[in-house]
## 1
Amino acid sequence: MSETAHGVSCRVADFRFSTEAESFRVDVLEWLSTIEPELSAVNSDPSDLTGLDEKFERRLQADAGSRGWLSLPLEFQAVFNYEMARADAPLIDTAMTLAGAAVEKFATSEAHTLVGESMRAGLVEACSAYTESGAGSDLTALATTAVRGSRGWILNGTKTLVTGAHKSDWCVTIARTDDHASPREAMSMFLVDMTLPGITVHRHRTMNGWTLDDIDFANVELAPEALLGIEGNGWRQMSAALGAERSGMFWIGFARHVLDLLSQFVCTTTRDAIVLADDPLVINEIGRLEADWSAAELLSRRALWAQIRGVDDTLIPAMAKVVTTELLVAIAQSATEIAGQSGLVWAPLFGGEAPAGAAADGRFAWEFLERVHGTIGGGANEVHRDIIATILLGRVGAS
Ligand SMILES: Cc1cc2nc3c(=O)[nH]c(=O)nc-3n(C[C@H](O)[C@H](O)[C@H](O)COP(=O)(O)OP(=O)(O)OC[C@H]3O[C@@H](n4cnc5c(N)ncnc54)[C@H](O)[C@@H]3O)c2cc1C
């Protein structure tokens, strides 16, 4: 609360990070500077989303986990995610991010608690597998089943488009456990040990060479304690878990990184004897992107502010998701256009020496192919637009 000049108390929304969070940022940046040489071709694995080798990723996660950085309060988590994205460090899609919220919120046994602790400590990898080929935006159409067997549950079905299943020790999934209930009452959530017999992971190349995975569950025998939370409550649990961190500050971090690369590129590249940064069309475009970045960054901080205070965990985060992911697409598009032919020469992240003539070491072409993913993963933007419209029109209708 603050006092106005007229002595009236008012609640002012202040979206800035706290002093504590800014001082945490300094610690994180210092740590990043020590690992920067290792974020390079020496640890390259272009078949993984991070572009980096699993062993290296596990080592970094354990280091970050030992510092308590994988289970931070929302504000600190946003700072951490922003800086990791800006540095291309493989610490965004951790077990905690992908599955930790579900495990921690809905743990019902000692075994769940132990898995949750190992996620916090960065000692395991995990994935969340909800999507199926016939059920993406509309998860009520899920066909995977879990039926009670003599020793627990028998799981059958195929999940698709799963991030990081090939390296996961654990998987949070949902399956139909009741044939007769309405879809939202028919699902239950399970914590699955990925080493169990009957589980096969198939890796499929994305446009950028890294893989998204399918998981086949074929008569997988789950112990009774694999059930996470309450039987029949899987739908609500999944919605709660997906909403755990939606400010999306990592998108803003990626955008900052690519905009910085673009600025560097136009300041150091000459075309027809003119430095690109002196071309009014180029500088106008970069100015527009910078203005859009500032607006998106503020919106993301507003989403975070709202989530921390529990005043709106749906509308503003949905807006932030749409704006930030589409900003990334726009930056990638402008970067390739400004760079011209050299912007079309592609190289994987951390791939070592880029092909001759590649602008920004092939990063602009990589971004061009990559950023459409963000508009689909985490809920397609069209669906988020539906949510935004429904809430806003609902409010207009109600007023
Ligand atoms: C990079 C990436 C990572 C992913 N990681 C995971 C993961 O780890 N775990 C997991 O379970 N899933 C994951 N997914 C899957 C993701 O959640 C789905 O792709 C997403 O929910 C959309 O589902 P779909 O692909 O089946 O498309 P559909 O639902 O079939 O949609 C097709 C098109 O129709 C539009 N559409 C659908 N419904 C509506 C509507 N109501 N109003 C307007 N338009 C609509 C969509 O916007 C889209 O353009 C990932 C996807 C990507 C791209």
## 2
Amino acid sequence: MVDLSVARAANATLVQSQPLVAVFIGGTSGIGHYTLRALATAEANGGKGFRAYIVGRNAKAAEEIIAECRGIYPDAQIKFVKADDISLIQAVDQACAEIIQSEEKQSQDPRIDYLMLSQGGSIFLPRKDTKEGLDVTMSLMYYSRMRAITKLLPLLLKSTLPAKVVSVYAAGYEAKLYPDDLSLRDLSHYSYSQARSHMIYMHTLFLEKLAEQHQGKLSLMHIFPGLVLGPGFQRPDLPLWFRRVWRWFFVPILGPLLTVSPTECGDRMLSLASPRYPPQGTESSGATDKVVVGTDGKPGSGAYSLSRKGEAMNIKKAYEKINKDEMKKKVWDHTTKAFEVIEAGEVFTD
Ligand SMILES: NC(=O)c1ccc[n+]([C@@H]2O[C@H](COP(=O)([O-])OP(=O)(O)OC[C@H]3O[C@@H](n4cnc5c(N)ncnc54)[C@H](OP(=O)(O)O)[C@@H]3O)[C@@H](O)[C@H]2O)c1
């Protein structure tokens, strides 16, 4: 367990080390919002300044978050990038293009030091395909996120931090895997928890591949944040049974025991930018704290599957059941093919 005071000290060190550029896809609510607020709070105590981009649908929420962060740290430079439906790969591309253009226009040193991916939120929905051929839930929680990383790579690779990518979802929830139906098109395979299992395997394997390709430059992690009560649990598209159980049973009875406060969550998410999570090939340089074990079981190997307190999940067993190298190639080929097909204006059907 990383002590909260250690996480907060890492944030203070981070903001004092250099001006930062951060992108929050899904930053108009919940965990993205809390992490941006943690950044503004740390900057207000002696930081060197930051630029941030928040991507989401809700312009009013974005305005309020920007005002809140400027109230904490008046020099904050924060831009809202509107994306009406980021489950569409084309919408991801547009949002990323806007961020790249804005960074290149307003700075002689365009880059991204910290990228948080927390879009999505609605769970337990039945399968529903986007017009591009991806299941909406799987796109929000996996494909759109991997697309954003690949589109923003040119700016991520310019970071001297080096850059950190944090995908907030359900690390450690690997269960069953259908290697020949990664998209779960066979409806007898599809359920929300099955989709979650696929998205988590695919996260680990895709992130590992990126960590190998960008050694020394890029550290990537996915994390289960714990239960963080926020607007996400009141979304009208959540199934009615879930909202009722949540409101009448979970929040009043179990909530106080199991939840993580928004402030703690934001501080912990920001602290993932620390040298405890180095890119592959740099584990011995600059790491003042204990380096965390990567998804391949080796310390500091650049791709991480993390618990809410920032420690490595024990995922060994899940990957012992599969031929990992073969699956990594399969997941990489599947994902990049989806992107190529959709970019060509066609519908992905694999
Ligand atoms: N909170 C928790 O306890 C918890 C626990 C485990 C896992 N997670 C996972 O962590 C992630 C973040 O959770 P959260 O609580 O921060 O969720 P949240 O409060 O619902 O925030 C989700 C963000 O994604 C954006 N978004 C959703 N669908 C979108 C779409 N189609 N197009 C564009 N933007 C879209 C939302 O934008 P708008 O608000 O502007 O519409 C919002 O900014 C989710 O994947 C969630 O499943 C959360």
## 3
Amino acid sequence: MISVLVTGKDSQLGLCIRDLQDSHTEILFDFKNSKELDITSEQSIAKTFEANAYDYCVNCAAYTAVDKAETEPEKAKLINTIGVKNLALACKNHGVVLIHISTDFVFDGKKKTPYTEEDLTNPINVYGKTKRDGEIEIDRVLDRYFIIRTSWLYSQYGNNFVKTILRLAEEKDEINVVDDQLGSPTNANNLAELIVKLISTKNKAYGIYHFSDKGTTSWYGFAREIFSRSGVKVQLNNITSSGFYTAAKRPKYSVLDTSKISKEIGLISKDWKDGLKRLFFQTNISSDL
Ligand SMILES: NC(=O)c1ccc[n+]([C@@H]2O[C@H](COP(=O)([O-])OP(=O)(O)OC[C@H]3O[C@@H](n4cnc5c(N)ncnc54)[C@H](OP(=O)(O)O)[C@@H]3O)[C@@H](O)[C@H]2O)c1
């Protein structure tokens, strides 16, 4: 039996991992929410790690409010950097492999081709900086870790672009969406499957990896596909970021090159449109808005 701690039990990714439990009886999962395990508290972490003999820790806990982070930088740092360092230290002390999730927002978006793991990071907002600093802490403390950078996560759970845009379509006749930020929408269920695969195969190719669904689109292109898939009719307008104020700057281009994960882990990303199709066919997203 492989024993696995999952932090951030109720995150959209944590919930997608929970859905895989029944089909992976070789893994004993221990899911914790922030009340059961606060990653910013060394005491809380010590108590949890001392009471259990984990093989892996999957960190789904994060401060993910990208715009709010601009006015709450200390809170974002506490969770995304200090909390991650706390977890890394506990993993080191207890011989646990850490699987941590990071983000495309560690890049500045100035490239015009997909970002590889070797590309220089240069976050342009507080969230991205605190996530990058979390990666640095892990690399300082641990040898046995997977850092998986992903992008534009959505699922049937939590708050995400798919749910927001479908809700907006119910409230408004017309929706404006930015067309000059490019990335790869990623179904969190696909990421959950990758994480469980790493664990169940006891993969030892530790390091930093990029994982997203395949292909490139803008938020406008993503919205268009969501409406086409769901059959929702609304007037959709493409605008530029200059016409849509957000507190945090976003990279103009944050497509991740996933060839390393394909080569070393043997995982081929699926097309982002198929990921979206999967969401509408396999889950009951519309009833959960
Ligand atoms: N969403 C995206 O588009 C996206 C894109 C790229 C990368 N990522 C990364 O992917 C990962 C998963 O994202 P997600 O969208 O699934 O997250 P999410 O739904 O926003 O959930 C974040 C979770 O973190 C937990 N948390 C916050 N502070 C905590 C603390 N001090 N101790 C323990 N738990 C705490 C929250 O628990 P409570 O509710 O109990 O506080 C919440 O369940 C994150 O690392 C994120 O940075 C996300």
